[in-house]
Every structure is written in C-alpha cells, then in structure tokens.
Design goal:
Elements (H helix, E strand, L loop, with lengths): L2 H6 L3 H9 L6 H28 L3 H7 L1 E2 L7 H7 L3 E4 L13 H16 L12 E4 L17 H7 L2 H17 L4 E2 L23 H16 L16 E5 L12 E2 L3 H8 L3 H6 L4 E4 L3 E2 L2 E2 L4 H9 L12 E3 L17 H6 L4 E2 L4 H14 L4 H17 L2 H4 L17 H14 L1 E5 L11 E5 L6 H5 L23 H11 L3 E4 L11 E7 L20 H11 L4 E6 L7 H6 L2 E6 L6 H7 L19 E2 L15 E3 L30 E4 L9 E6 L5 E3 L4 E2 L5 E6 L7 E7 L4 E6 L11 E11 L5 E7 L11 E4 L1 H5 L6 E6 L12 E9 L2 E13 L3 E2 L8
Parallel strand pairs: 1-11, 2-3, 3-4, 5-7, 6-8, 7-10, 13-14, 13-15, 15-16, 16-17, 30-33
Antiparallel strand pairs: 8-9, 12-17, 18-19, 20-32, 21-22, 21-26, 23-24, 24-25, 25-32, 26-31, 27-30, 27-32, 28-29, 28-31
Helix pairs in contact: 3-15, 5-6, 7-17, 8-9, 8-17, 17-22, 19-22
Length: 846
Amino acid sequence: MRNLPVVRRLPLLALCAVLATGSAVSLSLIFAGSARAQTTRASATDARVEAILGGMSLDQKIAQVVMPDTASFSAADMAQYRFGSYLSGGNSGPGGDERAPPERWLALADATWDAAMAPRADGRTPIPSLWAIDALHGHNNIVGATLFPHNIGLGATRDPELVRAIGAATAAEIAVTGIDWTFAPTLAVVRDPRWGRTYESYSERPDIVASMAGAMVEGLQGTPGTPGFLGPDKVIATAKHFLGDGGTGGKDQGNTVVSEADLRRIHAAGYIPAIAAGVQTVMASFSSVNGVKLHGDRAHLTGYLRGGPGVHGLGFNGLVVGDWNGHGQVPGCSVASCAASFNAGLDIFMAPDSWKPLLAATTAQVQSGEISMARLDEAVRRILRVKLAAGLFEKGRPSSRPLAGKVALLASAEHRALARRAVRESLVLLKNNGNLLPLKPAQSVLVAGEGADSVAMQSGGWTISWQGGGDLTKADFPHAQSIYGGIVETVQAAGGSATLSVDGSFTAKPDVAIVVFGEKPYAEFMGDLDTLEFHDDYKSYKTMQRLRAAGVPVVAVFLSGRPMWVNPEINAANAFVAAFLPGSEGGGVADMLFARPDGSVANDFRGKLSFSWPNGPMPAKLDTPRDPGTLFAFGYGLSVADRSVLGPLRETAPVGQIVSTRIAVLGRSGLPAAWNMSLTEAGSPPVPISSNAGQSQSGALALRGIDRDRQEDARLATWRGGTKARVAVTATRSLDLSAAGQALVIDLRVMAKPTGKVMIGVKPAATVGGKAADSLLVDATAVLADRPGSWRTVSIPLRCLGPRAALRAVDTPFVIETAGHLALAVSDIGIAPSSGTILQCPAQSR
C-alpha cells in the first residue's frame, strides 16, 4: 500500500517528457524502479536497526518503551534513564509555565537532547529521544503560534488540499521549537456529539474522515518515498485513537458496542488512507470495543491493525503508543505495571507520572518471561525504525536544525492567510431570512456577546493549556485577531463604524447587530454533556430579543465544538452562522459577514455541515431519513444567493426526551454549562475560577486539577489556615432542593486532615427584598477526619441543612469553608439520594 502514493505522485512533467520522447522506458519499469528503490531503502534501514538493537542493553531497550511527561522528570533523570521518548501534556510547559516563549521550549529540547546523548557510563552508544506534543489545530501549546480551525470546522470545508496545507504549516511551526512528533490527527468518526472531543473529529461520516486523514498526515510528514519525507520542516504524525473512540454514546473513554463489520466500515475508515500515506505512529484509544479495553485488545492492536496471519488487517508497520496512563485501565493492570497491554501490541507506554515504577515492573516482567525478549525487541525495532525514518540520528541537537529558533515562522503572514482562508471555508450559514447577509460594511455595526472579543473562546480547548479558556487574555495571543477585531478592520476600511457592547446595550441605535456567543472552552471528558441543549442562562437569547424589539436586525455567530440545540437563539436572529471553533483568525468571520464596499459578494458561504444538527436536546439519529430529531441534515449549508426562509422553530424538547432529575453540581467533566466556581477568603471579594486552577486573593485557599481515574478529573482544594476561606459553586438560576430524601452527595478524598471546623452546605438565593440569605451549613469535621487517604462517597442529607422552605430557591448548591488547614480532593458533587457514608444530622435538624 505504501508504494502507491509514491507512484501516484511521480512528477507529472517528467512523466510526460518520458512518454513524449518515445522512450522505450515503460510505466511498468518506472513502477518497478520505484518499488526496487523502496525495497533497497527498507533493507538498509532494517540492517541498521539490527545493528543498533544488537548493541543495546536490557535497560536501554526498556527505556525505549516508556514515555514520561516533561512535568515529571528532569534532565538528570533523562541522563540516568535515557527514555526513548517523552511528551509535554496540555499543561506541561517548560518549567511548569504554559506561557513560556518558544525560545524556552527550544532550550528544553536542547537540555533534554544533551542529557539523552551524553556519554554513557557503560560505554554503549546513546540513542536520541523523541519529543511529542498535542498539536491539534496548529502548534497550539505555544504562545504566538497560528491557531487553525478545529477539525469539526475543517470537515465542513470538504477541502483535503486545504487540510494538507494546514498540516504542512503546523509541522513547520512545531519544528521551530525543536519538537519531533505530534499526537495528531484525530480520526474518530463521532456518532454522538455529546462527547467532549467532538470538535477533534472531521465528521460523523466515515467518508469525510477518510478524505481528510491522508491529507493531514502527508501535510505533517511529507509524502513517503520523496526527498522531503520527514525532512527538517516535517514532524512525525499520529493516527488516533485506535479504534472506535467515536462510537461510545457520547461518553469519553466509554464502550463502543458494535459489530466487527461496522467497526471496520465506520470507525476504521480514516486509518486506511492514513496508513497509505505513511503515518508512522498510531495511538491506542482509552475506550473499549464490546467491553474490551483497547489498550489490552490484542485482536485489534495486533491482529487487525497489523494484519496478522489469517486476518484481513490494515498492514500497519509503525509503532503503537498508549494514551495518558491508559494501560492502567486494563483489567489486572495498574499505571505502574501492565504486561498485558504490552503483550497485546502496545509498543510505548505513555506513563506521564508513573514511569519510574513502570520501568522497574517491565524489567522484572522481561526477566521473568512474562514479557518475552522477542516481544520487547519487536517493539524496540518499531521505535528505532521511526527514529531512523525521521532522521533523528542525523538531525543533531534541536537548536542546530534548519528551522529551529526561527520564531518569525510562528504566525507568519503566509500561515495567518492560510488560517483565515480556512475560517472562510469552514463557516456554515444556517439561516439568512430576508437575505440579510452579506452586510453592507459602511454602516453602524454593534458587536455583542461574550465571544465577540475573545480569541480564547473562538479557539476552544487545547489552546495554550489543555482546557483552553480559563484566565487566558489578549496578551496570550500576540498575533491573533478576535472576531470583533476583524469586524472593526472591515467596517472601518469601508467608512463604517463598529462598537463593542457585550450585553448589547447602546445609546445610538445601530444599523445592525452581530452577536457572538457559544460554548466556553473545554477538552476531552470535561466537555461531555448529558444533552445538547445550549446553556448560557438565555443571556444571548435575551440580548438578541432586546435588539430585535428595538428594530435592530441581528446576525448570530455561534461558537461551539459540536452542533447544539439552539432553537430559541436561531429564532431570535435574522441570520445564524455556525462558526464552530475558528481559531486565531477572527478576520475570516468578518470576511464572510460583509459585502465589498460596492455591495457585491466578497466571499460566499461554502461550508457544509459535517455533523447533523439536532432539533432537540438529544442527538439526531444518524442515517435516518427525515428524522424529526434532525433540524439541519448532514451536508446542509446555505449560500447568500439562496432564498430560504426559516420559520419559527420549536423551543420545547420533543416528547420522550427527558433529562435526569439528579442535579450535577460538579462532575469529572467540570461544572454544568454557565455555572461558576469561586474561592473566597474573609474580607476579600470572591475570585472566580474559570479553569481547573486558581487561588483566593492572598492565596489562603488554592485549587488545582489532579488525576483520579483520568487526567485532571478531580479538584484538590488546599486551605493554608489562619483565615476563613470557602469554595462555592453557583448555578445560573435558583434550584428547588426541597424534595424529600435528597442529599448533597460528594466523592472525596482527604489528603490532609482538617485542623479546624469544616462547614459544608448550600446558600439560598436572595430573600424577598433582595436581602442576602445566610448559608445553610452543617459541621462535617468528624466525617472528613475519618479514613483519610482513600476515595469515598459522603452524603449530607439536605434536611440536615434547614427546613424544606429554605431550600426551595438555592443558587449556590455547594459551599465548603474552614479557617484551619485542610487538603481535600473532590471529583463528583451532586444532589441525589444518599449513598456512601451518611452524615448524621445535628439533633436540632432532625
């Protein structure tokens, strides 16, 4: 299969010249020559691999198969253990600084290279190490890099050549920082957009994913068999997550229940062209297929992926890398020991913080025969082949490479123009009543909404940090343009004016309003949803309603990582644009909203939905013609010339679509949409927490994300004592918590026992007349002092907090405070029937 791309891409002019001269050289000879050349190269590579392998010690071999995260090892550790590869996860900037400039990333590359390649005490030849990162929509961890639209938007373009160019630009920007390898592209065929990784997918349709897969791989790596393949401006690509990760019913790391035929037909569609394009690595999925964890699934990781004896497989001969401690989820395994995963076909354990015990355990397993030497050598051969293909042995110190340190390539004019073009092609016009679009630029334009002047919001997750958003500001995007910035540029150039008013208020009536709103950034399971109903407490809807009532036409620009149920907002707007997550070039949105100064169409909408758009809070039924749960079918998208008029849409959920009565206050995927968390200390105002980390005003209380079962699926709150401080979660509207039998149910782990009284409870909304209500709290010190160190469920019956009448309107459904020292981890908080350890109510509450 890998010969075919080389043959297809023989230079056309050279081939025509051969045929025009009447040369006796036939196409079959050209094909044969290409095949012989590849065979010769493969033989030379194999011989070199065997020579290197033959000189390696057992410790060297095992170090090749364990990948730590830069946040958990030092240069001294690298010099001692000589890891074959390492990664920087979404929150692992140099020295723990997510905002580190590109020069510091390159300096880290050099320091780690120097440690890996220093002379060994045993005299054996050092082997260079590969550095990997998640560059999913550009070199997104680096301040100042170009941020392209996320894959969901690229799928709407239907333009593989654009995707190829984006891959090439991304690879060049990665090379500037000395990094070798990206964990991209994601080839999930997402069948339920409630999944928090939907925006990493090109489409719900396998043919669209397949059309983009090979193009992105070749953009990142180059074309196999050509001189530029994995050259100085290219990086190693990863096809992920193998296999079926998009079929888990919207649950991250869930279970795909599917026939083998559909697994291959639907979920493997992107891997066929990716492998044909020479992708060097495949990442195993966290998820399961029919109950079997992929990290331990030999039938698929080895049999189907590699095409073993009697298996009609994919013929992959690169390396398989695990996901973040994913091997620890295999039955019988832990993050510190998992022979079963390695024997199933995993070549590299991704062990971000578990590398040290895993090295020891894997060594013991090889010595005992639980892992055979043949299996270890097989994995190391695959790793060495990838390193040789990437020229790692010849590239030298990262800072010595051709593109290293050329920071002008980050967000270069060429790359920004490419990103702006991608934005233009990715927007989908869903409504244009009265043919409002394109707008005349020479008029008074009001720009409203939380997303209007926020590059962080328009870029989504995996932007500077893992979850994106949070405390990111304009300063974190020195080369980017917000959507408002693009509108100002366009309108002023034509003699018009643009004014920013987030809430939509105005003194002088504008000619038109553009409201930019949508989802706040998230990544992975933090973005999982129970339903697709969009929530921002109807702020955007009310803004549009007020503007329409004032006679101002409204264009809605919706930022989201998936299609959502936004019928009220669509009804409130004259025109509605699905912009998905366009990235750093907000000017591309303005390009589509406005005509030229003479009124002619500057850029017509060409984007088509890559996902079906729901007509209720539950996902549309795929492959079901005329499904009433589908509002806009896959492939829908208007042009400005279309005379479509969209009538009023239903704003209530269809019959049978019922949401669970359990109230989730804080889940492993974060807070409910538009809810907020704050940290407060006595005498100081609350500090809102918009990501997984932060602290109260003077630092008396700090919060950060920690791992329970998955990456940062829990929060650790640490009270330093000396002043009373509290964590509070506030809802967007008052909640009725007066139902009998309900409790505040908390999954928690006491990391450091309390040294003072700890009060937990809720806070009712303001009383009649607007007077602030007192919090309803109960002393939980004793239950927290019991059994520290292990995860458990604690329930506080709501009747313990006060009379039912006081619980009928609660806007802060979780409060915890103490003036003492305490370190408490929580992963789930909800209002539900009691379970686990039940706090006994004080006598006066019974």
